[in-house]
Amino acid sequence: MKIIFCSLGKSNEPYVNAGIEDFTTRIGKYFSVAWQIIPPPKNAASLAEPVLKKAESQAILQQIQSDDFLILLDERGQQYDSPGLSKLLQQRANDSSKRVIFLIGGAFGVDDAITKRANMTWSLSKLVFPHMLVRLILAEQVYRACTILRNEKYHHI
After folding, report:
1. Angle 82-94/131-149 helices, nearest 10 degrees?
2. Please, what are the domains in the chain?
3. Quick one: which of 106, 125, 132, 156 has the most CB atoms within 10 Å?
4. What's the CA dihedral at 113, 118, 123, 124 to 10 degrees?
5. Strands 2-8 and 99-104
């Protein structure tokens, strides 16, 4: 199974990039993993919100294959504890999912086309975080879930 972290927005700032790279490397010991950062449309600042979301959704949908398991991150989604996330990853692996995509949408959320395509919606928190911090938190939580699957000492209950 391959895990793909897909995010709209700019590249990571150096102050979070080191952490993201570290956790991504750690995840690579358990699953194949990659990041896809989709840049915002060139004229994003001048677009109305619905038009921007539609343009972003078109860019996202080009990255997604029909058999991908798409997990949309949204503060209105279902919340999981760390063991619950590890069970979700194990279930995807057991179901022979080729690719699991964790999607971090744009600043205004995602177009309905993405919400409808998503296999599930997951909330890291009811709080809203900057995209770069979400990337770091997401990478750390997926790494934590991997260690739980292997009964390793990283996660303390």
Report:
1. 70
2. 2-149 (3.40.1280.10)
3. 106
4. -110
5. parallel
Question: How many angstroms separate the first and last alpha carbons of the chain?
Answer: 27
Is residue 133 within 8 Å of 60, Cβ to Cβ? no
Closest CA to 102 of 29, 10, 7, 24: 7
Instruction: State pLDDT tens for residues 107-139.
Output: 889 999 999 999 999 999 988 888 889 999 999
Sheet containing 99-104: order of strands: 32-38, 2-8, 99-104, 69-79, 120-123
Hey, what are 129's tokens? 């975080």
Residue 97's identity, in one-letter code, is S
Query: Is the CB of residue 41 less than 8 Å from the CB of residue 88?
Result: no
CA 8 to each of CA 102, 121, 156: distance values in angstroms, whole numbers, following the listed order: 12, 16, 32
